[in-house]
Amino acid sequence: MIFRQLFEPVSSTYTYLLGCEETGQALLIDPVLPTWQRDLAEINALGLKLAYTIDTHIHADHISAARKLKQEAGSRIAHPALDQLSCADELLEDGKPFTVGGITLAPLHTPGHTDHHFAYAVEGRVLTGDALLIDGCGRTDFQNGDAPTLYRSVHDKLFTLAEDTLVYPAHDYQGRRVSSIGQEKTRNPRLGGNKPLAEFVEIMANLKLAYPKFIDYAVPGNRECGQCPSGVPEDLQQYCEQVRVSRQG
């Protein structure tokens, strides 16, 4: 399997490119609208064709490139069935393998950051979205998020994977690229070290995070599989426009 980790700097989002060397089919997980051209160029340079885009959840901090890539590359949109998106071509379910060419994803329902959040396990890796970050986790104070639910998702669905499973998150804000299940179980300051549920709930309740600045545009736009809505203020247009220079993560 061909595997690439790509970075979008406006929202500090990682997009993952998975390619089947035998069939030439490719997947993009959590593609971001401003970098759709870069992602297609990467796929073309590898001699692949984009078959599917997949999102881990309805994002609040960026617009998905799923719709744009479908228009430009003819790819199909796969998305968790629980979100009931009319724009999705394939519906993903917990525990039901999703296969494209020689690549098989294991969808894992990991609610808590959002109620319908999914992670995807594939060939010794798990793409954890916002449920589990490196030394952290996604917030739980919007989109039906819930701290006890996230705690159970991480402990029951992710921490039960083999300890050498590589953890690839949807975001990192300090330039880190990869962790492992063993590392997060041991040293994650929110969820690791056998931290009890009550302590995790207290940590999440006291984060005092600001209201996400793009959420009011991102959530409705992503319920349309990546439609940047009208009326986006000038200072937020970078979330919709192409990023001219996008360094890799």
From TrEMBL:
Name of the protein described by the UniProt record: Zn-dependent hydrolase
Keywords: Hydrolase, Metal-binding
SMART domains: Lactamase_B
PANTHER family cross-referenced by the UniProt entry: PERSULFIDE DIOXYGENASE ETHE1, PERSULFIDE DIOXYGENASE ETHE1, MITOCHONDRIAL
Domain Metallo-beta-lactamase: 12-171
One BP annotation, GO: glutathione metabolic process
Keyword Metal-binding in annotation: yes
InterPro entries, A to Z: Metallo-B-lactamas, Mito_Persulfide_Diox, POD-like_MBL-fold, RibonucZ/Hydroxyglut_hydro
GO molecular function: hydrolase activity; metal ion binding; sulfur dioxygenase activity
Record-linked Gene3D superfamilies: Ribonuclease Z/Hydroxyacylglutathione hydrolase-like
